[in-house]
Amino acid sequence: MVRTLGFTVAVIVSLVAWGARQLNQNQPAQFTPAAQTQNQTGNYKHLAALDYKNGSTPVITVGHDHAQLNMSDWAGPKILYGNLDSLNRTTTNVGYLNRQTLIHSAGRPSQNFEPTGWHNRYVIIDGKRVNRQNRGHLIAYTLSGNLSVTGHFQAGALGSSDNPKNLATQTEFANQVLMQPYEEQVRQALENGAKVIYRVTTVFRGQELMPRGYWLQAKSDGGLDFNVYIFNVQSDIRYDYATGRSVIDHSINVPEQ
Q1: Neighbours of 96 (CB within 10 A)
Q2: Residue 2 in domain
Q3: Does a structural domain hold residue 23?
Q4: Is 47's pLDDT higher than 50?
Q5: By residue range, what is the domain housing residue 228?
Q6: Mean pLDDT of 118-123
Q7: Which residues form the signal peptide (predicted)?
Q8: Distance of CA 38 to the CA centre of its chain
Q9: Catalytic one among 46, 64, 66, 137?
């Protein structure tokens, strides 16, 4: 009887340990903003305080355009998705990417999540239909292939399209014009077989719900290195970043790069 009881206890302990390992493996790969370096925190505060000057360049360099990243930290492929803050706003996502994470298909799954500050409605400007806002990915969908929604490697996974930790309210211009050249640099580096660390932070001022901008950093083992801040702005539209609402204002002029 004692031997049977001991065997039963051993089995239960083994099952509990196995369950704990499985649970741990399925937990999201998370990045905690509190783990940022002092220099990164200082840059964040500086960027959050910046006001876009009408007619000026909408993309500026940070840290002399050199990423505050170290390739010795590459541990992938995976994406660390930062937890939403107390206002349900995105924080920082870090991708440890290689050629396996590239997505080459033209389409993507639909998006339904509404990030903080979401008040999109189209307007006709100069005869063209213009969206006031996009659901802007921090880590581009096309860079998240074979990774689960929690950021772990999963062969065949479709990538991160409608992940609340990877979507913020971004102007159509910032998303589709200003940010894409930098995403393309990352894609090209991956196509060339490089490993890339790609870090994206949404920058909010105080308790505002729409980010003032996107802070992008990337570094590879093949020479890629940039550190830029993209203002979340668009010509002919004035945004209230506290709420995300907007009005037409033809005095707003945001040039392309």
Answers
A1: 21
A2: no
A3: no
A4: yes
A5: 29-248
A6: 89
A7: 1-19
A8: 21
A9: 137
